[in-house]
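Researcher: Quick sanity check before group meeting.
Model: Go ahead. Protein one:
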Amino acid sequence: MAVVNRNQKDKLFYALFSEKENALSLYNAVSGTSYTDVENLEIVTLEDVLYLTMRNDMALCFHDDLDLFEHQSTPNPNMPLRGLLYFAREYEGWLASHEIDIYRSTLVKIPAPKYYVMYNGKASRPEYQELKLSDAFAELSPGYEWTAHVYNINAGHNQELMEKCETLHGYSVLIEKIRCNQDSGMSLEEAIAKATDDCIKEGFLREYLLKNKGEVRDMILTEYNEELREKTLKEEGREEGVGLFAKLMSILFSAGRVKDAERASRDVAFRNALFKEFKLI
């Protein structure tokens, strides 16, 4: 079992399922298969594609399938589009590595794509849902579709899936224990330490946690800090936006530009033009 590289800003989900044995277990769980030939599984995760600061995706090629698993803690209706763009890059790499020319006269056979989103955020979500790319089409385009299969992997959800993949179950339990510890008043570091020790005692991710305890702590701390930073930036941006809008309204009403104020309240492009006109941005 490989030791986690502490220099990479990886999410724990990525670190766990980048190990072939765990990836195969997850593949079998979602596919309803029972393959054991882990030597034929290839991890083909792309570098620096979907994530900005934290690596949260894992892609594998196995038995003519090309599967992408992406971990999400925030619901995102744009996952089908993200997945489509990711797979375009994956197929480019696959064609290049196999030296295949798509301009030849014979049909090129490619691995079948499957896209899974593993959700464990705090917002309530269904056990399973399918997100369709066609929902984003500006107009109907029959015959074109791309689907993201979204599984809720929070504790207590998708029990059958958890039973089939021990590592996924262990991950779910660890995150739930951390949240419960925080809710009881512990600091994040204390919550992680106690949750890790409890999981080891109870047999959840035992081998992995014993070998990578420090790295797991660092990854979770970094992940939580990144989420807090993103939340803070959004809140600050929202507050700044509200302040700018209030200033703009004050200027417009003082100048008697009531119609402009009304239009700015519903027309984003016009509002931004006014921000620039009055040098507010």
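Researcher: Fine. The other one?
Model: Protein two, sequence then structure:
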Amino acid sequence: MSHSTALDTLLELSAREADAAAESLGKANAQRADARQRLAMLQQLRDEYAQKLQDHTRTGLSFASYRNFVGFMEKIDPAIAGQKDIEATASARVERAQLAWQNCRKEGKTWERLLERAQSAADGKAARADRKLMDEFAARASFTAKEAG
């Protein structure tokens, strides 16, 4: 029965690892979603400013205003590039966390199968012991009945 206890412990540890991996995956997904949202916001802001620049150039734009628009664009483009890097890093983190979680689940299923096999073997051994005991009992009863009769 110590086999079963060791397997139970391994199964429990594997389940804890899978839970921790699932939590890590959830955090990584949330970070990626946040990075994507920030990237979309920056891109939308850039598009809005580009549209405003086009609108103002049609209606007339002072040199100072034009310089402000261009300066803003020169600052937002690196910010977008940086946010793309952050989003790519977050996506890579999600992929690693997903793989770790899947591996933990796979390991847990392996321990479950081993535990089931051990339980099945123990059940089979107990059943054979019961049959042997019943056979011995039947043999004694038969022997006793022959002696009495």
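Researcher: One line on it for the slide.
Model: The radius of gyration is 35 Å.
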